[in-house]
Design goal:
Radius of gyration: 18 Å
Low-confidence stretches: none
Number of strands: 0
Shape: globular
Strand content: under 5%
Largest sheet: none
Distance between the termini: 34 Å
Number of helices: 11
Length: about 210
C-alpha cells in the first residue's frame, strides 16, 4: 500500500468497500434476492460505476479470491534455489494452515464460515469460482514450464489444494473443533503433497 499512489489506493479501497457491502447484503438476504442496483445504492455509487470495477454480480463476491489467483505460480517462481516446486507449494500450504488462512479452509470465524456457505451454496458463484481455479491452474502451469506435462501437474496441484480446503471447511462448518481440524489438516496436507511428489517426480526434485 505504501508504494501505491493516491489514485491506486483509492481504487483499491473502492474495490474492497463495494465488495464488503455486497457480501453483507448477500449474507443477510441471499445472493439471488439482492440486485446489482441495490448493491450500488448501498455503496452510494451508480450502477455503471459499479460495473467499471466489477464485471459481474458474482465478481463482487469472488473479489476476495483475486489476490490468490496467481499465488501458486508466485510461490513456484520465488522458491529458494535448490527447492523443488512441490516442496515450495507444500510449505506454503502448511504455512496457510498454521495462520488459519481462509483459503485453506482452516478458519472458524463465523463471518468466514458464513461467506463459504454463501459461496458454495450458490451455483452461479461455484461456476465463477471454477473459472478462477482454471486461471490459477493456467498461471501455475506457466510457472512450471508451460508444456503439457506442466499443465497436467498444475491441474493436480490445484485439485489437491481445493479438496483439502473443502474438507477442512466442511468439518469446521459441522461444528468440529478448529484446533483438531488444524492438526488433521497438517497431516492430510503432508500426505497429499507426498503423493503429488511421488506422482510428479520431475517437480519434486526441481
Amino acid at each position: 500500500m505504501g508504494a501505491m499512489g493516491l489514485r491506486e489506493r483509492k481504487k483499491l479501497r473502492m474495490y474492497q468497500d463495494v465488495s464488503d457491502i455486497a457480501i453483507s447484503l448477500f449474507l443477510e438476504k441471499g445472493f439471488e434476492k439482492v440486485s446489482v442496483a441495490e448493491v450500488a445504492a448501498a455503496a452510494e455509487i451508480s450502477k455503471p460505476t459499479l460495473f467499471r470495477y466489477f464485471s459481474s454480480k458474482e465478481d463482487l463476491v469472488l473479489y476476495r479470491f483475486a489476490d490468490h489467483e496467481t499465488e501458486a505460480a508466485r510461490v513456484v517462481g520465488e522458491r529458494a534455489p535448490g527447492q523443488s516446486a512441490i516442496d515450495a507449494l507444500r510449505l506454503h500450504f502448511l504455512a496457510g494452515i498454521e495462520r488459519n488462512d481462509p483459503v485453506t479452509g482452516v478458519n472458524g470465524d463465523p463471518h468466514i464460515l458464513a461467506f463459504h456457505r454463501l459461496l458454495y451454496g450458490t451455483p452461479s458463484l461455484v461456476a465463477r469460482l471454477y473459472e478462477y481455479l482454471e486461471r490459477s491452474e493456467a498461471a501455475l502451469a506457466t510457472a512450471l514450464g508451460g508444456n503439457l506435462e506442466a499443465r497436467l501437474a498444475a491441474g493436480q496441484v490445484v485439485a489437491v489444494q481445493r479438496i483439502l480446503a473443502m474438507d477442512n471447511w466442511r468439518r469446521i462448518a459441522r461444528g468440529e473443533d478448529v484446533a483438531k481440524v488444524q492438526r488433521d489438516a497438517v497431516a492430510a496436507a503432508e500426505a497429499a503433497f507426498g503423493r503429488l511428489g511421488q506422482g510428479l517426480p520431475g517437480y519434486a526434485t526441481r
